[in-house]
Design brief:
Blueprint (H helix, E strand, L loop, with lengths): L5 E8 L3 H10 L11 E9 L4 H10 L7 E3 L2 H5 L6 E4 L3 H13 L3 E5 L6 H13 L4 E4 L6 H11 L6 E9 L4 H4 L16 H17 L12 E8 L5 E10 L8 E8 L16 E5 L2 E5 L8 E6 L4 E5 L14 E2 L2 E2 L9 H13 L9 H18 L5 H4 L9
Parallel strand pairs: 1-2, 1-4, 2-3, 4-5, 5-6, 7-10
Antiparallel strand pairs: 7-11, 8-9, 9-10, 11-12, 12-13, 13-14, 15-16
Length: about 400
């Protein structure tokens, strides 16, 4: 690898919707977002169902003709041409998949939530460090220019002293009808389903990146938590509210974070932002508002005590109109030529490997563990337990 430029060869572990979105974003020329020292390519993909499915996936994402298809994850991690593996399986399988990658010397970008519990996260962090490998949780939102802007408003003092953050990610999914058989990954406890790990992680991300990440590392303290949770018939949560209290230095007093998530109601009912912001970062001089969806926001509003109001749009870069490029994330299909924004986290992985770092600048592994500890406590208070096999730190363990 050159010290000046890096072409990162990705292995894609799993071939579902989020893997497709990520892989398609990798195909966008980094120069469209002013990145000149990192390039990305899909070197291989693996499906646990069949090699044929992996071949179909590579065609769907317009991967290079040289990209290899595998019918097992074991084959993928043994490929010497793969620099880093993107794990896109359900949360329930992240621990086993990441351990497999580390055992074969592969760097890892693992989808959120990083694991099912904090114990698994700690073991993975220890394993990555013992193997001297890069490891990062794929919370793509943290790497958006919009998120960096919000954090800079806080660290610069522009908002004054921030005392409260309110964040929500809720979608009216009608689980009683949509997931009636209980098999969907959204509500299936065998796949660590529920609103918390799938949607609530984004609400918590906004609390943490504004109230925790923005603090000097030596002053960061784990928050205390109070929770109310409503379960689905499977036992998975469909409606969860959390109040977090983040300690501050002597004389400053604690700050509050409110994180909510639901499959019963929508944070943005008409899909046009008419309901207002779903995230509010409130300081003594003003607040910054972020509009739905929390995972892929494209609009902010700055409202200051002195009367200043500033609306900003944050479209994602891409090849542009006329390119014939389209990418979707779930039901969200962007305008022609606009990426989804998953390339920002891929760029961070590339920068880290180029610079010799083993973790992210914007979300340390320590912070990922703390967030898992918070979600452990939320589940404890809400009475949400997953099957022992997917909570286990035993490796290898067959989950199929």
């Amino acid at each position: 690898m050159s010290k000046q430029t890096l072409e990162l060869h990705w292995g894609i572990l799993a071939t579902g919707g989020i893997a497709q979105t990520f892989a398609k974003d990798l195909s966008i020329d980094p120069k469209t977002r002013n990145v000149s020292t990192i390039k990305h390519s899909v070197a291989a993909a693996a499906s646990s169902s069949s090699k044929t499915r992996a071949q179909e996936f590579l065609k769907e994402v317009d991967a290079p003709s040289s990209a290899k298809a595998y019918g097992s994850y074991e084959e993928l991690v043994k490929d010497p041409d793969v620099d880093i593996i993107y794990i896109a399986t359900p949360h329930s399988h992240h621990f086993q998949n990441a351990m497999l990658c580390f055992e074969h010397g592969k760097n890892v970008l693992c989808e959120k939530a990083l694991t099912v519990n904090a114990a698994q996260a700690r073991v993975l962090v220890e394993k990555a460090r013992s193997k001297d490998l890069f490891f990062m949780e794929a919370v793509w939102t943290r790497y958006f220019p919009l998120s960096i802007y919000v954090r800079e408003l806080i660290t610069s003092g522009h908002l004054g002293s921030v005392h409260r953050v309110i964040a929500d990610l809720s979608m009216a999914m009608d689980p009683a009808t949509s997931f009636a058989d209980g098999k969907s990954r959204m509500v299936n406890v065998d796949l660590a389903g529920g609103a918390l790990l799938d949607l609530g992680i984004y609400s918590l991300t906004w609390l943490f990146q504004t109230l925790y990440t923005t603090q000097p590392e030596s002053q960061r303290r784990k928050p205390s938590v109070q929770t109310i949770m409503s379960p689905f018939k499977t036992g998975a949560d469909v409606h969860t509210s959390m109040i977090l209290e983040f300690p501050r230095g002597e004389g400053e007093g604690p700050v509050h974070g409110v994180a909510t998530t639901s499959m019963l109601v929508a944070g943005d009912p008409d899909g046009k932002g008419s309901a207002g912001p779903t995230i509010r970062v409130q300081g003594t001089k003003g607040e910054v508002q972020v509009f739905h969806p929390a995972f892929r926001p494209v609009k902010t509003k700055l409202v200051m005590k002195d009367g200043t109001v500033e609306d900003k749009e944050w479209p994602q870069p891409g090849p542009g109109k006329g390119s014939g490029f389209f990418n979707k994330f779930g039901s969200d299909k962007r305008e022609e030529g606009e990426g989804q924004g998953m390339f920002w986290e891929a760029d961070e992985a590339g920068y880290a490997l180029l610079e010799g770092r083993k973790e992210s600048r914007y979300q340390s592994l320590e912070e990922s563990v703390v967030i898992m500890e918070v979600m452990d406590e939320v589940r404890k208070q809400g009475g949400l337990k997953y099957p022992e096999k997917i909570e286990s730190v035993e490796y290898p363990l067959n989950l199929t």
